Amino acid sequence: MAVAAHVLEHAARDPDRIALVGPEEEVTYAELAERIKARDVRAAAGPAVISVKDPVAALTQALAADLAGITPLVCDERAARLLADIPPAPLAEGGWACFTSGSTGRPRAVVRSRASWTDSFRHLDRLSGIGRDDVVLIPGPLVTSLYAFAAAHALGTGATAIVPGRWSLEHLDAATAVHLVPHQLPQVLPKPAALRVALVGGAALDPAARERAQAGGLRVLSYYGSSELSFVAADADGTGMRAFPEVEIEVRAGEVWVRSPWLADGYLAGAPGPLRRDAAGWATVGDLAEPYLPGGVLRVRGRGDGAIQTGGATVVPEDVEAVLRRVPGVADAVVVGAPHPDLGALVCAVVEGPVRRADLEAAARAGLDRVQRPRRWYTADTLPRTPTGKPARALIAETLTGFRRLG
């Protein structure tokens, strides 16, 4: 069932309830339904690319496409320009597409069926307690899958969704529920009187942060997954991550494999990415975990493909390296994550060759999203390499502070 169809049902049942609170306006379910039905969405070979800045307008366009059976893809202006260079590819009727965090160059957008989102709503309702009477703050950009799903879920449930379209806690006092990434949880404490639950995803949550929140009367539902796998496991009470409803989990040679109805179909236009499948319907993105028994606690160790988890976003090192290698004087570059107590990791770059930090930073600003830009810069006359000649990424990460800092 389309998310838009849920919105139309809520409009018929409770037309005056506020559906969306944006930077410029509040919109009732009745008004949202009329706007959705009034939009003329034409069939296209590819997704309906939505790049308007206003989050209320973006969601309205996405829902109109959804109602018409066309896959919506909310993106920022930069991603929209890059998408214009990709030949349209046919998509299955009735789906959603969202960007994975940190894509650059060729956009990496995950395409999924409607059901892979909407059929999971009832499980999230039960785990979180979110319902029609809630006001849900979604304090991040809708271009990323975490916040796009949060908005779709709130509207599908019939709640009020507050969508500033950027990181902002401006309306926290009015919210009963909030979606966060782990390092943001302390920022909502002490909690406002109305706030009762925080849904925390995107990276591992520090148990101490959960304890502080719960001691202050805020219930925390943390979860593990990815844009490609959707929900994999959830922790509703602090006892550990256990399989999300209808999800099967296996840890094979230390790697997490999942089989569930929530898996994405793949990447838009066949873009490369970490998603892999087997013939039995299992999928992985290379995350590593300790040995796992069905029904037990899943203990995730990190990404096996070198991806950097920073502030709830996933940065693919190869994307950043491709931009840095274009800087004059750079013979090669390796991007790794350095542990950080709040963000999970800092993006760090080690470059080979004579180059100025100012030139690297200028290239990063021009070619990378903010979350992808290195926070620390190092240089080496020659990068350590494997016997095959590739940069020894693991060794570089382990010995990062031994390289010269670029001032």
UniProtKB/TrEMBL annotation:
One of its GO terms (molecular function) is medium-chain fatty acid-CoA ligase activity. Pfam families: AMP-binding (PF00501), AMP-binding_C (PF13193). It comes from the Bacteria. Keywords: Ligase. The keyword Ligase applies. Its EC number is 6.2.1.3. Residues 98-268 form the AMP-dependent synthetase/ligase domain. PANTHER family: ACYL-COA SYNTHETASE, MEDIUM-CHAIN ACYL-COA LIGASE ACSF2, MITOCHONDRIAL. Belongs to the ATP-dependent AMP-binding enzyme family. This is Long-chain acyl-CoA synthetase. It comes from Nonomuraea endophytica.
